[in-house]
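Incident log, support desk, overnight shift.

02:14 A customer reports that sequence design results differ from what the structure should imply. Their input is reproduced verbatim below. On-call engineer (initials T.W.) acknowledged and began investigating.
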């Protein structure tokens, strides 16, 4: 708290108070030893996040580390590893070992890489990924949970559908998974039982990020 207060030019008492009120967070996993603690909140300076990560067909560990270095050099306060293919755990470990800023992830990306199809996902796969990432040292995770299955049909009027990648994966999973054990319900029920999750910050992902809608055609109004 004192270190963060010095960085932000705030008093330690204010930092503690804001954290206690839920208006400030400290994304810091005890398994991330190189981390320099920082905070995000109303009373602190504005923070910048940078997204990096490899795909199944492009990039490698060295390229991701170069992205990390450039991100920090040009002002990123936090970095998210959004890798979707290749050896995701190895890439993430290299990033964590090299990073002094908090590292975040979107667990559903790695969960999807472990199965053949979206409908093969399960709450157990998701929970395993979350726990493994927490044990590895990830400081914060985005969990896409901001949608109910009955709301998914409302996105069909959108020109671009659900534009959030994690949100679209979750929506497809929920639609294809038979009730009553919808993935989201199981995830909410068991997430708090994972001991490693208590060491990091969980952020709610905006599953239904605003997108373009189809609007009915209207005739131009009369100049009179």
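02:41 Re-run completed on a clean worker. Output:
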């Amino acid at each position: 708290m004192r270190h963060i207060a010095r960085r932000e030019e705030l008093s330690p008492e204010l930092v503690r108070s804001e954290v206690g009120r839920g208006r400030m967070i400290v994304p810091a996993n005890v398994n991330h030893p190189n981390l320099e603690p920082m905070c995000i909140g109303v009373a602190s300076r504005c923070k910048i996040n940078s997204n990096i990560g490899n795909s199944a067909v492009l990039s490698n560990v060295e390229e991701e580390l170069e992205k990390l270095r450039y991100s920090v050099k040009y002002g990123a306060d936090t970095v998210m590893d959004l890798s979707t293919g290749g050896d995701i755990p190895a890439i993430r470990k290299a990033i964590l070992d090299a990073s002094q800023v908090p590292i975040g992830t979107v667990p559903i990306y790695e969960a999807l890489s472990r199965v053949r199809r979206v409908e093969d996902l399960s709450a157990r796969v998701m929970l395993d990924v979350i726990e493994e990432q927490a044990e590895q040292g990830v400081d914060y995770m985005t969990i896409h949970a901001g949608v109910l299955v009955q709301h998914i049909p409302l996105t069909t009027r959108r020109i671009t559908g659900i534009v959030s990648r994690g949100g679209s994966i979750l929506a497809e999973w929920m639609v294809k998974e038979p009730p009553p054990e919808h993935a989201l319900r199981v995830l909410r029920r068991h997430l708090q039982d994972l001991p490693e999750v208590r060491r990091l910050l969980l952020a709610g992902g905006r599953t239904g990020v605003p997108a373009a809608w189809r609007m009915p055609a209207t005739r131009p109004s009369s100049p009179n």
